[in-house]
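Final report, results section. Input specification for complex C-07:
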Amino acid sequence: MENGDLLIPDRPGPGLDVNEAAVRAHPPKGKWHVTEATYDILGIGNAIVDVVARADDGFLSRHAMQKGAMRLIDAEAADALYAAMPPGLESSGGSVANSCAVAAALGAQVAYIGKVADDQLGAVFRHDINAIGVHFPTDPLAGGAPTARCLILVTPDGQRTMNTYLGACTTLDVGDVHPHLVGLASVTYLEGYLFDPPAAQAAFHKAADAAHAANRRVALSLSDAFCVNRHRAAFRKLVAGQVDILFANEVEIASLYEQDRFEAAAELARADVGLAVLTRSEAGSLILRGDETVTIAAVPARILDTTGAGDAYAAGFLTGLTAGKSLAACGRMGSIAAAEVISHYGARPEADLQTLIAAAGLS
Amino acid sequence: MENGDLLIPDRPGPGLDVNEAAVRAHPPKGKWHVTEATYDILGIGNAIVDVVARADDGFLSRHAMQKGAMRLIDAEAADALYAAMPPGLESSGGSVANSCAVAAALGAQVAYIGKVADDQLGAVFRHDINAIGVHFPTDPLAGGAPTARCLILVTPDGQRTMNTYLGACTTLDVGDVHPHLVGLASVTYLEGYLFDPPAAQAAFHKAADAAHAANRRVALSLSDAFCVNRHRAAFRKLVAGQVDILFANEVEIASLYEQDRFEAAAELARADVGLAVLTRSEAGSLILRGDETVTIAAVPARILDTTGAGDAYAAGFLTGLTAGKSLAACGRMGSIAAAEVISHYGARPEADLQTLIAAAGLS
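Structure output:
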């Protein structure tokens, strides 16, 4: 199969309210590759620096946190929580930015759009994503809010609970999305969290339209069940109308379709998008494409910090997909990347991922 | 033994050029405890944020680094090296600041003097040292150089090679050393690296004089063999004249006394200071006090990153010493703390050190 030739069927049926221009831009059949892509993946997301500290369940309770979830906090709450937190480790984060870093580490050609401030943490974010080989053209915000940070508490069970101050991310808007860049990428990968900052939804739609206008594919991560709750109608419309590849975990997909049973939600996803990739933690993952169903086992790992597990899975999957691998191979690449990331603190890879993939016979 | 009652003999003989006021302030015999101390340890050092990245030996060669050493770089060189470095993990560092953090984690009462800037990395440093329970009263530098950073490359053998941009640390001076605070601490622990910033040597001597005037003890870490080379005469004078407890590794003590053989250097240290504590990596450590010699085995550890090993050892040792433990117990506490710190990236403790100490029967 030619590189970049992703066999994803068109979205089945007109269904919900669909952007007509985007639909017209779609190729009539499963193949959409037209001109060779410069980038395998273009990620768009909240550019965030993580502050990771260990805490016990009592700390989460005292600060009214929902374990495993992400909540948005303002600058004042961020300062207060930081003051109460144990010593931390700082590292670049952001869900789709993490995916971009992992994909680049796996050898994919990757670009990223996200908004940092012109400050020290912004410089850290820029350094790290550049250093791993990701093209990051977004201008920093000068004179406004500081670079976003996510205060992450990791409990002894390895679960991470996140408190995000969006800072400069709230200023990402359509001006930061250059259609030419979008057109150069096989897959434009959008972060569900981007529905939170007010101006980003418009940027989201602009990116999706530009991708389809260039006969490229759009992928979306639902990010977080609470995020889905906050924006369910918009997500439903986007998924049915503009998304070719959907990433979600069990809780997120159940929330999107308001289903109690995972299986029912999965079938609705199958009907809505060309390719649905559903992760289930230690139960592995499920890949749905038209009538096909592929089940992938999780790769066993010593769980130290689950931060970035889903991001790494998506990165492995998309790297495989844009390299023309089978769905089963894509899923295994995702599982291997996720297992590496949860085995240490922080969401960016530490081990040599290409060696791990090669050892599994997936190069 | 009463808490804070450290049995260290007076420096043997007048020897070299000694600060007369400090000598007069010394108690005539090994006991110096007069009024109860508020702090077990007051650390004074360069307040630094570490940026830790993995690199191979080729990277060190290409950037003309001496493996395992610390070198000083200016702002321009720091920017250039950072741009060339792989993605990093940021965490609070600084040799004596690391010791203070470890000692606080072990349950000691600790204060710290060091200079950060009024910027994001300075806020990270302040948060982390406060969060672990260290009193940190030094005002930040406003409007000058940024907070110091140390770019640390960790090679596959676990060795760390450090490149320090001193930034705000160069402004630490006598005004930051409050004699009253020094007088409240059983041991004032000085960082050899503080001889590098120009104004800090005076602060160093002021602190040592204030400690002895209050009948307290002065400890010194030689920090780095290259640092000793840069300031050998000043170190020799300080060690013989004002230091009660000396920490050094094999290479540093050999450099201080310009000896090829460790044993010869160790005997010169024994003659110079009341208590010499010499670390030898996996060969353990040697403690010399007057005629006594105590040999301590290293605690086996999986070495991932040796950054902070010596700092953690000194912290464990001083925590034991100020709690009135035997020299053998102090050395074992040091070895346990060092083993914990080298088993992960970063110089600050991750495991519960008090539990490790209790498990070894040293609580």
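Chain B touches chain A at residues 51, 54, 82-83, 85-92, 101, 119-121, 124, 127-129, 131-132, 146, 346, 348, 350 (CB under 8 Å). Chain B is about 35% helix and 20% strand. This concludes the modelling results for the funded period.
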